[in-house]
User: Fold this.
Amino acid sequence: MTILGKMQILADSAQFDLCDYVNKQRNSEVNLPGIYNASSNGCEIPLFKTLMTNKCKNDCKYCINECKRNFTRMELSPREIAKVFLNYYDSNLVNGLFLSSGVGNTIDQTMENLIETTRILRKEYGYQDYIHLKIIPGASKDSIKRAMSLSDRISMNIEAATKDGLYELSSTKDYNKDILKRIKWINDLSIRDSSLAPSGQTTQLVIGANDETDEEILKRMESLYNKFNLRRTYFSAFTPVQGTELENREAQSTERTAQLYHADALLSEYKFKKNEIVFDENGQLSLSEDPKILAAQEMDIFPVEINSAPYIELIRVPGIGTKSAKKIINIRKKMPFKKLSDLKKIGVVTKRAEPYIKIEGKYQTTFQ
Assistant:
């Protein structure tokens, strides 16, 4: 089988690993394996995303690469991966690399292969653009540090929100030791040396493969953001894969993951507390209502005065984001706001914000 043939299999095996808003549709203009479009700040960025191997010793019940599943297993060497990637990069087909792997012979050997690939790119070929490297659960501190020294961003998938939740999915990983302890190491290393993985660390959860609630999930994310400076979280909606232990489990709706993204942004970007987010009696988010609006309806701070409210209150107003809140504060220092249309000009979604604000002591229905 050709390298591109192997690459097709490995790229397909990496399809559930999310990175930087990865679009799972392969680039339609260049029908080559491993090219995925990422979205950052409104721009589409093509990345080369693949596994080094889809061989894996882990028994994750939802995973396409689960050890008991019968399908074609492939492996490429660090130099083969590097050459394919550089061919794509030099042809202006991709702008960066996202590299992950199943666990081959051992965790240590798998990490060495990932690190060697990035070493070849950085040291032998002088590649200085974006690399996102996946850390294998259970990796040694030394291998994590070396991986961070060669990467812009790294990530470790926690997969579940709780120890029991992970145990439902896998018997080969220790949640506290193999995952949370490593996330702490990553944070400790980055604090000591900011040049290590300067774009920080991210993580990913599989939603719907176990019975964890949205409240449990967001409680975990709040803890990770507060303790370990996590940059962001990706939520992968569970999809049953034929040949795995969970092949008969119902697929999870993308509506749920969309709501989790909205609520997660309240924690990570807007600095909400988990107890400010509204859940139903089963610990789930509403699938139809905006989490920020539901939270606002339970707060006793509204209406807030646009010309005097502190930043922390402004960003709790539906329709006001972090950027527009900063603009409000900067503008009102020079000239107070007089009417709703002034807010609309700086990006406030006034239809959403109107019930929750006053301008110069007045509700805004009179200013339209």
